[in-house]
Amino acid sequence: MSTKFKGNLDETDLFIIKRLCEDSNTSLASIGDELNVSPSTIHKRICRLKEGGIIERFTILFDPSILNLKTIAFIGIELERSALVGKKKDEVISKLLSMQEVLEIHETLEPFDLLLKLRTENVDFLREIIGDISTIEGVHTTNTILTTKKILETPLKYETIKDLGDIRRG
Amino acid sequence: MSTKFKGNLDETDLFIIKRLCEDSNTSLASIGDELNVSPSTIHKRICRLKEGGIIERFTILFDPSILNLKTIAFIGIELERSALVGKKKDEVISKLLSMQEVLEIHETLEPFDLLLKLRTENVDFLREIIGDISTIEGVHTTNTILTTKKILETPLKYETIKDLGDIRRG
DNA sequence: AGTGAAACGTTCATTGA
DNA sequence: TCAATGAACGTTTCACT
Asked: In chain B, what are the domains?
């Protein structure tokens, strides 16, 4: 479903991904040195990983506070019964997707139907957004969990990359 | 609190950050072209942004499914009254930080004391982790919100970077 | 998967605004 | 103080092996 990558990821691929996660400015030569292969091999591997959709893009992590988005909240949404499936649900989701403050949308079973993660400048803006969400047709109730302090927020702990185990794909 | 950056971020800085978010392999020269400044200026800006902690690091986004971490869950934790502040709370948090599956930890007010986000390979592993968490001294109850489908998951919508407004810092 | 060479990008000391 | 220049150096890319 998620990738069009052909073949298996081997140890080399995973090592490359890990090194690039740590620092995507690392030169191909130095990655090659660590693996005892040539830079051009690393280059070809990275191209393949990009084409296969394994590597989405090269990017930077930056301090979100420069955007003044200091308020993080989670919102549980219960949908109206008529919006639990089909077109009406799709419409709810597409409206949520179009909101810049909405960073995550997950389907859940209990106690909500959808769980969102949002970032806003402050609590007043958050209130506005919640207002917008609750007036979306098909949204029955919203339940806000306002966070007061972020202790950890990381996309993935890439240290995990090392178990080459059964990473197979068709 | 969060950065040691001296001075203000100007339009140029924000443009650089946005371009690097989109593609951190963009050459300094081509960013410079778009801003009508020289590559060396871009270079110095990026150095300054790195040193100031605005740019955390250069990295890649990759498909998490290669790590077989397909299960996303959120866990609300209520702490025992004795662990609501101080050393005991710090110990709970440091145990949570050390768990590879725990990707986010937020303090909240209601209805939980802490909200976690986790990724695991499958629901069985999740159950194990929940077991581990619930036996941490100071954890009173855990409430799991299991997600069934990820619709959106993005660290930040960097398209937001453009309002140069009142982005001031001391 | 490696080699080697050309093209390209980065870095920095120097100079000027 | 900040940006531009230009040259030295390092990296990427690609045709060929």
From this structure: 11-60+156-169 (1.10.10.10), 64-146 (3.30.70.920)
